[in-house]
Specification:
Layout: H1 3-28, H2 36-53, H3 64-85, H4 90-94, H5 96-134, H6 140-159, H7 170-194
Helix pairs in contact: 1-2, 1-3, 1-5, 1-6, 2-3, 3-5, 5-6, 5-7, 6-7
Pfam families: CCB3_YggT (PF02325)
Keywords: Membrane, Transmembrane, Transmembrane helix
Protein name: Putative integral membrane protein
Length: 195
């Protein structure tokens, strides 16, 4: 396989993971599913999530099925990369698929956190720009961004309410926190690779 295949595998799998994480965030934020963008996410993920919910039910508003699918996509991506692009050590192959999956669990969670932070950075930057451009008018895109980021913003807004009722610093605080988390994960990854 060449670099183009690797590039496509990396980005298509990341986009799929983001779709299921957005579905999770919309459910956490009790989003309005009449919003056309929310409807698209719901319809795109429903063929996988709805049957799985019968086996893995939700925990309150947390869509466990969406979370499991997101982790599964990352696991499959890592397995493909490790077996096709990078040769696994012989002992890892001998332990079989089950142990192999367990070995990949930790990087998968790290990958999930990185994709989640990237997705939230995009959403928060979009929210800040869209809020400025919309001038307070209703737009389904802005409403979608508010709803999908609400589960993260709401706890911060309870601690630091908007100044004078209009100036909300919570997106800025979240952006700085996400940049800090990404930097820490990147440093940890470099440390693990270089020993």
């Amino acid at each position: 396989m060449n670099n183009v295949t690797f590039f496509l595998l990396e980005h298509i799998s990341n986009l799929l993971v983001m779709m299921f994480l957005i579905r999770l965030m919309l459910q956490l934020g009790q989003a309005d599913f009449h919003n056309p963008i929310s409807q698209f996410v719901h319809k795109f993920t429903a063929p996988v999530v709805n049957p799985l919910r019968k086996i893995i039910p939700d925990m309150g508003r947390f869509s466990t099925a969406s979370f499991v699918v997101a982790v599964a996509i990352i696991l499959v991506k890592f397995l493909i990369i490790s077996t096709v692009f990078i040769q696994l050590p012989g002992e890892a192959l001998a332990l079989g698929v089950t142990v192999g999956l367990m070995m990949k669990a930790a990087p998968a969670m790290g990958g999930l956190v990185m994709i989640f932070t990237n997705m939230m950075l995009i959403l928060f930057l979009g929210l800040m720009i869209a809020s400025f451009m919309s001038g307070g008018r209703y737009h389904p895109g802005v409403a979608f961004l508010y709803q999908v980021t609400r589960p993260i913003l709401r706890p911060i807004q309870k601690i630091i309410p908007p100044i004078a009722g209009t100036i909300d610093l919570s997106p800025l605080i979240v952006l700085f926190a996400l940049w800090f988390i990404q930097d820490a994960l990147y440093s940890l990854g470099v440390k693990l690779i270089t020993g």
